[in-house]
Specification:
Beta-lactamase, alpha+beta, homodimer, 8-stranded antiparallel sheet
């Protein structure tokens, strides 16, 4: 087993202060590994980085078209959003279209990280709802599929037809039998895979033919939706949103909890997956930036990049105190 | 150079999800290394974990007694507090006693992490002040010393008499010439040292004689103040506060940014210092708990411990999804 390698570092006063190690893989459209750092076979939980895989059955089943889902809704089904008004509005409308409400969600209540919405709730002395949960879009997708299947309301249970369909799609597209699952923050099963398997699945999305078979069409539509509606996939100020905008809608990327990041590069027909072993989000954001710059799809001098890679660190008085940068030898 | 070793791990669904590596040292009263994990000579920035070292000149100079500082104020001078009302009240009174105000601080404005105070500011549409900065207590101490010395107002500059006194005390107590400094979040210089040097300084505090020389008396008073007033050193819900309470005031501990943690064990006349290399706070909290349990001063089954070590992870619906625990072989 190969050890994880240094990917991102915090420097202060000209000295190394902190360092993040990780595993990363770039796959081509055949699922072959083009490049790897650390251990490509390291088993990880993709967490929210695999939301586009979890959304495949929604499209493949015909449920999305039967419900008349828009491109925005498809992007939202792949989102880890911050509970801003645009997100909660979409979730509420979607639930209403299904004849359902907040109580039908099974993601749990999460306080919004969107500042405006957080402050509004505090001022109004209102509690957060399940629609604020960062996964509420994915759960609206699960509910749409469950209704279409005529399946029961406990759609996050492992043996529910929705999750069984997700598992089948996940294993087929990663090209691996999942070695097991954990329960995610939103109560849905999260299937483990290798970093290479996750990168392979992203390469499949990258090369998916929009006029191909059911799965190809589903993957191509989801990629297009994410890249076209970055504000729905995360939110203002967030890495996914800002970096997808910086790449002009040509690349879809997605973060996952515990420092996972993936990228779908349709023009290059490549997929990327990485995991920072310590779970530190700043490390994953810097590392995905470094790989996207290396692939020639992200401008290293774009403000969205410089917020995360070669990022000047300032203190409470705005003084420059350090830099967060790529580790030497990585990417 | 010895590599850092696994110290804390997140497990989900029976599989390892994330892992934190670090360096740790336990020193005895002579400054000898009793036990070490990783590289004792690894150079780190102690960040806020060395606030009791930064407070030594305040006492040794006679400034603290001349200003009639209380035990509570000495604890507050060593604090990384969360800007709760008890903290901002103390900072404002202290500044007023000096004939100064918020604008004389040089720590910068930081939003309080204390929820009640944060919500109060949002409801009142008030901005945060410098007294909310987690370091405002330390800066009140710096100002007290600067006044006593008759020195100028820019007390965070490296060549200011306050910082020169801090540097001298820091190097003497760590037993090392600092290889350099960085600028901290609060604009004060932060002197680098080895993990062993930081542990040695904590052992000096642990063994300090309350009836000894000026430095011994100062160190003993600061340790006693921190252990006696844990609510002023951090705040409700925070690791330093909860764990010091759990140890019944017999041990003083202090966190620092980027995952540093130190402990002063007076009864055992030992000092501990550790750094998680990725800067992840949860890793440092679990690791210091593990070492304090190992030293026999912290109950492994105390709720304050179980929040951080062998800590059950729950999702947004309160379901158990994993555990955060000590890495096998550590401590």
């Amino acid at each position: 087993m190969t050890e994880p390698v240094p990917m991102a570092e915090l420097w202060r006063g000209g000295m190394l202060e902190s360092r993040h190690l990780g595993h990363a893989v770039i796959c081509d459209e055949k699922g072959a590994i083009i490049d790897a750092w650390g251990d490509p076979q390291a088993v990880i939980f993709p967490r929210s980085s695999c939301k586009m895989l979890q959304a495949l059955p929604l499209l493949e089943s015909g449920a999305a078209d039967a419900a008349g889902l828009s491109e925005a809704q498809l992007a939202f089904a792949c989102a880890s959003h911050q509970g801003a008004a645009i997100h909660t509005d979409m979730a509420r409308r979607w639930l209403a279209d299904l004849g359902l409400g907040d109580a039908d969600l099974r993601c749990g209540v999460q306080e919004p990280s969107d500042r405006a919405e957080r402050d509004r709730l505090i001022r109004a002395e209102e509690g957060a709802c399940q629609v604020h949960n960062n996964c509420s879009g994915k759960h609206c997708g699960f509910l749409t599929l469950a209704q279409h299947m005529g399946a029961g309301p406990e759609y996050v249970e492992l043996d529910h037809p929705v999750q069984q369909a997700v598992k089948a799609a996940f294993e087929e597209v990663t090209g691996e039998q999942s070695p097991g699952h954990g329960i995610d923050g939103c109560s849905a099963p999260n299937f483990a895979t290798s970093v290479a398997g996750l990168a392979r699945s992203m390469a499949f999305f990258a090369a998916a033919n929009p006029d191909g078979d059911t799965r190809n069409r589903a993957a191509a539509r989801l990629t297009r939706a994410m890249a076209a509606r970055p504000e729905l996939v995360a939110g203002e100020g967030r890495a996914c949103t800002e970096l997808m905008r910086a790449m002009g809608g040509k690349v879809a990327i997605k973060t996952g909890a515990e420092a996972v990041f993936v990228a779908i590069l349709p023009e290059k027909r490549r997929g990327i997956a990485l995991k920072i072993v310590d779970g530190g989000t700043r490390g994953a954001e810097a590392a995905i930036c470094a790989l996207l710059v290396r692939e020639g799809v992200l401008d290293p001098n774009h403000p969205a990049t410089l917020k995360r890679l070669d990022a000047v660190q300032r203190n409470w008085r705005g003084r420059e105190v350090g830099i967060f940068r790529k580790a030497e030898g990585f990417a």
